[in-house]
Specification:
Blueprint: E1 4-7, H1 9-17, H2 22-27, E2 30-33, H3 35-47, H4 52-61, E3 65-67, H5 77-88, E4 91-93, H6 97-105, E5 110-111, H7 113-122, H8 128-140, H9 146-153
Parallel strand pairs: 1-2, 1-4, 2-3, 4-5
Helix pairs in contact: 1-3, 1-4, 3-4, 7-8, 8-9
């Protein structure tokens, strides 16, 4: 059975800013999201001239990330993502601390960009050098704290 992952805007932005968007394809998982995430990452980003939004748009255009609905009537985008992950029995992929806490409180499996890099390393889909580079890029682009990076890097020490 193919793993399904509900992805938020923070994760898409982080991966695109760091040039790690191909990591989504390497998993073989099905990534889904809601229209509100697409609007925030692609439409609003392009309107602001964010080049990373072009990369993100390709993720949607290629089917790497599929839109499967709205956030839910009367729900914020984050609450809609949590509800979607629960309903679909999916992993919640987020780099947002508040959303991660909501997901954990709801009993969801929660994964962030650094965790994705670690999973790919353990699955031998990226080499150690690629893992170290990915963690370094997340820190450099202010997507991961140095303290958390050191915890991940201990996995290969």
């Amino acid at each position: 059975m193919r793993i399904e992952c509900v992805i938020d805007s923070a994760s898409i932005i982080s991966l695109c800013k760091c040039g790690l968007e191909n990591h989504l394809r390497l998993t073989g998982w099905k990534f889904v999201s809601v229209k509100g995430v697409f609007v925030e990452v692609v439409e609003d980003g392009l309107a602001k001239g964010e080049l990373d939004s072009l990369v993100a748009k390709r993720l949607f255009d290629s089917g790497t990330i599929s839109l499967v609905g709205q956030s839910g009537k009367g729900l914020s985008v984050d609450d809609g993502l949590v509800q979607m992950a629960k309903t679909r029995n999916a992993v919640l992929f987020t780099n947002d601390v508040k959303l991660s806490r909501k997901g954990n409180a709801e009993g969801l499996a929660v994964l962030g960009s650094a965790g994705l890099c670690l999973l790919l390393l353990k699955a031998r889909k990226i080499p150690v050098a690629g893992f170290v580079k990915g963690i370094g890029l997340l820190v450099e682009r202010k997507r991961l704290s140095q303290g958390n990076a050191e915890k991940y890097l201990q996995e290969v020490a």
